[in-house]
Fold each of these.
Amino acid sequence: MPIAGQMIEGGLRLVRPLGRGSHSLVYFAVDSAGQPRVVKIFPAHLAAFANREEAHASRLDHPRLARVIGRTEVDGNPALIGTLARGEVMFTRYTQRPAAVHERRAFLLTLAHVLDGLAYLHENGLVHRDIKPENILVEPDGGAKLVDFDLAGPAFELLEVPTRFGTAAFQSPEASRGEPLGPESDLYGVGVLLGWGLHGALPDPEEPLPPIQDPLEGLYLSLIRFDRTRRPNDALWAREELLRLAGLPY
């Protein structure tokens, strides 16, 4: 187990744990020039996830996505070095619920930034495959970044064994079946988050949330359609529709 203050390869000093990724322990660190960094440490037996995230995320460069900028080792375990995304995880940031009622502008800015990042990711042929509050870091004004790409991969990737990607409460129906995933599956996760913001609760497929009089209710329902072929698959369109319906500039 790494310890606070430990120096690692590349002149980085681990400062404190920040949390856990899907397959990693995440540390706040400082490089030799005093710049803040994130170090994601993977157990040796999960090196394939480190390799995967490095291959996909190291070529991404967008203000709404955390960046992977290097690789190192910590006590023989593979580790990735990334830029620091500031803020709190989404559900910790929005404590007054429904968030779209109490902090409407900030909450919708958060979702618009997530959709910005997803549009760029999708344009580059990738899907995130784990849209959830823990992977969205939000600043006080609502500005947000999408993090944790160790489950990300090519859109509609065919795997040797069907794999259920994601986290159950935010997982699209096709993800729960282990099918290849496309952009519409990421947008399902955004829809779940929008529903949480509108209703103050997560939707239950077995017991739909009661409808409310909000101009964004229709967009929310379209994003969580069970049939993936009837669900929006364009993150840029979803972003513009979100802001249009809310009467915000885009």
Amino acid sequence: MSPESTSALSVSSGSHGDAVVVRAVGDLDYDYAPVFRRQLAELWTAPPTPAPRLVVDLSGLTFCDSTGLAELLWVLQRSGETGTRLVLAGANRTLRHMLATTGLLAFFELADSVEDALERP
């Protein structure tokens, strides 16, 4: 896995079987959302495209604001357009609450950990 940035948000990705795992560590907010989007956008343009499954590891997030939530919605939309199964792994209680409060929780597949997401059929 190679880091995308050493700023307040670092994003790395790697292949695991039929899945690509993207790990976000730090703040997913207005200032650093472009780092997240750039890394994800590259995944849909790099061969082979698209991966059958995308696991976004959010266990390292320390903060997520409405801009970060919008980025997750963008990933959900893009996944739907490309036929990629999206799993959010390790979302903390605050992020789960934000998704529930906004009525978006039902649209995301959640897993407690990356390992749990990768073990799913």
Amino acid sequence: MIFRTLAATALFALATAPAALADKYRDRDVPIAAVESLDVERYLGLWYEIARFPNWFEKGCAGVTAEYALREDGQISVVNTCRDGGLDGEVKQSEGVARVEAPGELSVTFVPWLPLPFVRGDYWVLDVTEGYDVAVVGNPKGSTGWILARTPQISDAQLAAAKSVLAGAGYDTSKLFYPQQPGN
């Protein structure tokens, strides 16, 4: 419940933040584009957070995962899980709802009971490997970004490729944070 409230507050803060705060990780003069096609069915399931740009709503989170599932109404359920302070920390979850806005472009809310546009955050899939085992996610504002994988660790080559996608979209990859995952 606390994680859900924090995530909802974070999305609200991000949506209403001044432009100066919203682009701290990405040069917005550099074009950004989502993948031209995203097989949502293949994207569903469990993803491990390999790297993220720091944000206060995930502060102290380790062992972070995101799980996506198709809902009966055609939208996507989102369950983010975090272990507070380390892999043996208290489990916190945040539940949200995503909808596809365009190919590779989703919007997510963690307060679905509040149907206002400013509580939805952009979630753009910038790249996904052919096997749907590594994904790179960002948003046009550059306020958030993640490298996700189907396993808790990825190879150095996979990480370099994902960071290259972020850099190509104007992100400063030197600011990435690598949360602790099982096995590292």
Amino acid sequence: MPIVTIQVTREGTQPGTDSVTADEKAQLIKGVSHLLRDVLNKPVEATFVVIEEVEKENWGWGGLPVDEYRKQRALK
């Protein structure tokens, strides 16, 4: 019984959204479940997928808050 946790920053991927959409979450769940089936022969019905959305101010990257890291990376 595999359990997969996916952590993403809470921000929209489409204009007007501020989080991952239900459709995007459904695609992630399906894709991860099928990947485990195809690679490890784990049954889809026995796979659990948890999606955690983390506020951007709680996400660090390269020693910086994610927004600051992205700004600096864009300048390079």
